[in-house]
Each structure stands twice: as structure tokens, then as C-alpha cells.
Write a structure and sequence with these properties.
With 101 residues, the protein is an alpha+beta fold. The chain is built from two helices and three strands. The protein is 31% helix and 33% strand. Strand 2 and strand 3 form a beta hairpin.
């Protein structure tokens, strides 16, 4: 039997912080999963992975800031990359607007 090569896929990883810059309450697990159900799953219904994370970045004042985060992993056929890019940006924009990120 001759081995066959599978289709090429693109992996996209998105990171979502949970702290709100205005000092409001952190994004909760139920809120984030409701966001995934309402905004992500309809655009990528074939599957995705959500992982808990811990992120950090250097703030404007030079201090290292840390927060709990989520990592969203999406896989899609490479042949669909151009079609999926605007959907990925929509997910990012919706989270930024909805949770003040």
C-alpha cells in the first residue's frame, strides 16, 4: 500500500485576555464559553480547541503585567485561508468590543 499525503491545514492561535482595562470584573469562564458558542462556533463549526493560559506583557509604564487568558486554536484547510482570514478578524474584533480588550 502506498502512503498518501493528507490535505494541508492552517493553524491559527488566538489569545484572549480576561482583565478589563477599565477595572471592571474579569471575563469569566461561562462568559468566554458563551462567546465561543455564539461567535466562534458558527464560523468554525468543524471543531476548535480552547485552552486556559497565563499571559504577560510589558505595560506602557514598563511594568510586566500578568493575567489569566484563553488560547483558541482553529484548524482549517489551507485552500480556505483567504476565506477564513476575515472570519478570524471578526472574532478578534467582536471580543475586543464585547469585553473591552
Amino acid at each position: 500500500m502506498t502512503p498518501t499525503q493528507g490535505k494541508a491545514y492552517v493553524e491559527t492561535r488566538l489569545f484572549f485576555g480576561t482583565e478589563r482595562p477599565d477595572g471592571g470584573p474579569d471575563v469569566t469562564d461561562p462568559q468566554f464559553m458563551a462567546f465561543v458558542d455564539a461567535e466562534v462556533t458558527p464560523l468554525f463549526p468543524d471543531g476548535l480547541t480552547v485552552q486556559d493560559g497565563r499571559g504577560q506583557w510589558r505595560g506602557r509604564n514598563g511594568t510586566i503585567e500578568r493575567e489569566c487568558s484563553y488560547e483558541l486554536i482553529l484548524l482549517h484547510p489551507a485552500t480556505e485561508a483567504r476565506l477564513r482570514d476575515p472570519l478570524i478578524e471578526r472574532i478578534r474584533d467582536t471580543y475586543e468590543q464585547g469585553f473591552g480588550q
